[in-house]
Fold this sequence. Notes:
Low-confidence stretches: none
Distance between the termini: 69 Å
Strand content: 25-35%
CATH architecture of the domain at 461-591: 2-Layer Sandwich
CATH topology of the domain at 461-591: Glycoprotein, Type 4 Pilin
Number of strands: 40
Structural class: alpha+beta
Strand order of the largest sheet: 14-13-10-11-12-15-23-21-20
Amino acid sequence: MFKKILIANRGEIACRVIKTARKMGIKTVAVYSDADRDALHVDMADEAVYIGPPAAAESYLIIDKIVEACKQTGAEAVHPGYGFLSEREAFPLALEKAGIVFIGPNPKAIAAMGDKIESKKAAAKAKVSTVPGYVGEIADAKHAVKIAEEIGYPVMMKASAGGGGKGMRIAYTRREVEEGFPLARSEAKASFGDDRMFIEKFIVDPRHIEIQLVGDKHGNVLYFGERECSIQRRNQKVIEEAPSPLLDEKTRRAMGEQAVALAKAVGYDSAGTVEFVAGQDRSFYFLEMNTRLQVEHPVTELVTGIDLVELMIRVAAGEKLPMKQSDIKLNGWAIESRVYAEDPFRNFLPSIGRLVKYRPPEEGTSDGITVRNDTGVEEGGEISMFYDPMIAKLVTHGPSRIAAIDAQAEALDAFYIDGIQHNIPFVTALMHHPRWREGHLSTGFIAEEYPEGFKSRRAEGEELSVLVAVAAAIDHLHNVRRRQISHQMANGTVEFAKRRVVDVGGQRQTIEVGGTDGSLLHVSFIGADGAVSQSVSVGSDWSAGEPVWRGEVGGKTVAVQVRPILNGATLSYRGIQSPVYVYTEREAELAALMPVKAAADMSKFLLCPMPGLVKAIHTSEGQDVKAGDALAVVEAMKMENILRAERDGKVKKVNAKPGDSLAVDAVILEFA
């Protein structure tokens, strides 16, 4: 077995590999760029080697720098993680030349299956059912249009060396191919150092299901069940689960056996994933093979009880797989949410900055529920514009799908992040979405259910009652503290005005706070007729200043995030995020008279929607533009975003140029 390995990656996957290596008694070496000097993976590793500037193309993607780091530290093997160099045939070849072991598949398998075009050719040769498409070289956008029109719209344009949604576009029209193909190709070049593309038919209402494989160097290949990854946004997975609610045992076996046959045909000898697009009728087609560990591998680990990273390391060291196919059983259900640094209320635009607070839920197993958080950040760390925006992967496991979903929802409510925007409100709301809970999924789920973008739901029913009760408990605690500080409490007790008005996002509820019993508070809801409509007991040991209120409301355990604002707090619960104020009756009367400040009119400005790099300006001063015209392209976190005119107008002034690094809401253009 290896004594020391190097992880040629960063962030949460580097931390994940280090944990398993540490468990196996293997020392680890981290590599880092200028942007990652203080990163968690650097702190966790036994050694760390600096490899260059923040841009991945100047650091993490430079093979010679990784090889030199191995020589410098005496690392015997390299785990590539995912992304970066993990699917580059040249990487294991360079390592082999230097006498270093690659903890991944052999170069021939990467060449055959890691390249999306070559994998489709291999699949077709092996008589595997594939999606109709064009797998040859595509010269330019004009050639792409011709291919798309021969296949028939909609089509998917995809990077040959791609993964993670980078270098991918779905096109429904000729114009979308003309505009999207160059952008996808540019993203592919920036992310993978390879701008080759392929085009295939986009299956309507599809599901994305993948089979986890591990092969050894002795000809054995096993499959470890499937994962459903249909909840996607912009072709990037958001939520994954294992097993799939679609498959039955017959289909699972058929997909697994087909994946194994394909892997054996190319001599595959590490962890990898065969991806399928599936119809609602359980028909399925080979999509691609990822010759690496997948982001969503934790859900497979939790339902099988097998450490896939450990298997990768042991296989790379020449060991045989220690189990047979019949030994692999699926136990319970696992759900994974990807926590991203992006603003769900602004069309999921990237967010960068410092993690002023980072308080994930407690990990561990209790009462049949497991909570796991794979992360590569810590409080005080920086989210950079140079890399993928994923902060963490929150995974829960339970005896059933609903149990795992409920556990995920509760854990998300307790996951507190401040300093940057994040998608926790969105993934929390998804956990309570009826269609998601029923398992009626497709890759179009998010676009179909949120056609106008994500907006926080209005609190109603039980959720409104919880927010009102928690706000009352917080207000009561603050009143007690104020009176203790001012010495107004005689013998530790004081009579408070019982009646309050709680304003939850403009919805007002009159309550009465009853006598308290230690940390237990009694809250009565007053109806329009002045009578009590319901009463709940509220218990918690929450202290002022804690970011998450944990306790019981009406006997039910809840977690509510608390962010102080002027004269109140923003409470977040079940994906609902709302400002909440607690008034005396007189304060409520006066608050109703306060004027609402109107937002400034910014309609004559094109603002940069996220911190990013200006890649192109498509207009000039004095130019007339039409609604829908491309005005600028801004790159952030490896994704290029086209900014378009919302209506007809004339450009008065251009304030930015290609190469400029802009902050959020920086003015790019002014209109007359």
